[in-house]
Amino acid sequence: MYAVDVVSKIIAVDRLTDRPDVQVVGELLVLHLVRNPGAAFSTGTGYTQVFSCLAIVAIVVICYFARRIGSLGWAFAFGFLLAGVAGNLTDRLVRGPGPLRGHVIDFFMLPHWPVFNVADISIDIAAGLILIQVFRGVRLDGTRAAHAPEAQPGTGAE
């Protein structure tokens, strides 16, 4: 996913800079180039360096905990999360106006939603996979969390 994100942003910048939006599926999905210094909905535009530092910390934490993964579900979740965070961090490191201050390239636009990119999709997939693992009671090491004891007949807890 990291490579898909990087390549898609290179193509988006090449094909969409100073050009009109491209309707892919009517007004439902439009390619619209945005250079975003902030987070979703362009919030926190004055905190680009903070977002960059948080992304670096997130990558270190992901790599630290990844050593303990014993479940395929967690492996996919962490892989998607790492790809997404690294994809947006790459923009902040290599794009203008400079290192740690670079703007993230976003280009997918849906109605009533912030413009986003492949890295954002990857982070959302990771969040969904993490929630699934948590609700299934699967720990990072692959073991199952103990569930509450089942109700015993005749105890009034049926």
UniProtKB/TrEMBL annotation:
This protein's UniProt keywords: Aspartyl protease, Cell membrane, Hydrolase, Membrane, Protease, Transmembrane, Transmembrane helix
Substrates-to-products reaction catalysed: Release of signal peptides from bacterial membrane prolipoproteins. Hydrolyzes -Xaa-Yaa-Zaa-|-(S,diacylglyceryl)Cys-, in which Xaa is hydrophobic (preferably Leu), and Yaa (Ala or Ser) and Zaa (Gly or Ala) have small, neutral side chains
Main location: membrane
The enzyme's E.C. designation: 3.4.23.36
Keyword Protease: yes
Membrane topology per record: Multi-pass membrane protein
Pathway: Protein modification; lipoprotein biosynthesis (signal peptide cleavage)
Entry keyword Oxidoreductase: no
Active-site residues annotated for this sequence: D106, D120
InterPro entries, per database record: Peptidase_A8
Chain ranges passing through the membrane: 46-65, 72-90, 110-135
Class of this enzyme: hydrolase
Subcellular location: Cell membrane
Described function: This protein specifically catalyzes the removal of signal peptides from prolipoproteins.
Family: Belongs to the peptidase A8 family.
Protein name: Lipoprotein signal peptidase
UniProt organism field: Nocardioides conyzicola
Gene responsible for this protein: lspA
